[in-house]
Amino acid sequence: MPIKTSHTQGTPSWIDLSSTDPAASQAFYGGLFGWTFEGSPTPQGGEYIMASLNGSSVAGMMQQSPEQAAMGLPSLWNTYFTVDDIAATVGQVEGAGGSVMMPPMVVMEAGHMAVVVDPTGAVACLWQPERHIGCEVVNEPGALIWNELVTSDPEAALEFYADLLGAGTMEQDMGTPEPYRMLVVDEAPVAGAMAPPMEGIPNHWSLYFAVADIEEAIAKTTELGGSVVVPAFEVPGVGHMAGITDPTGAMCMLMQSAPQD
Which CATH number fits domain 1-205: 3.40.50.300, 3.10.180.10, 3.20.20.450, 1.20.1250.20? Predict the structure, then answer.
């Protein structure tokens, strides 16, 4: 299992869960993915919980904010993009057509973060690392494998991130009416964008966790109190996928990658 020591600018590098019930979230993801957890107090009160897989960081979680609770929001996963200079990047947000939800702040000795909103209303986080690089394990069962922007205007939204992060874009024919659009860093796709599969879904960043066996993961999801909201389906050449919600309402995707020649 390769351990990452850095992430390139423009790469989705960290995820965390704003949970209505962190204890329930830990029980679910620990059972599903084999994660272990360690909490640390924060200056704002409460604690930030680090999730690890075989001793290496894969995700974080914390108690949902009072503002989110007052809005009646379910638990939500957040996507972070690594940037080399967070102040300079945030300074470009409005010019690129977005807005700043939270200006840069220091997160103890871990790094610097900010929260921005793209032109279609989807929320993303920016991360300039110091001691914490983000995910130390990716693309392995139980770890993050893909980030996907679900948005009413994939082309415009992805151009915003490309401009902001100094990345490129590409399109791939997936046999659907619209091509699948991707964000590209160092000539490699790092994230995708697609229109909502049905009406009523808000624009947001979704994420995929790798699993070794999609059917076993689905069975484990229901055993642990989660729900399957998108039954397993196959994308030829890519893999088998399914959408689930955990017991606190957070949604994510599971992905069993297709064998590679």
Answer: 3.10.180.10
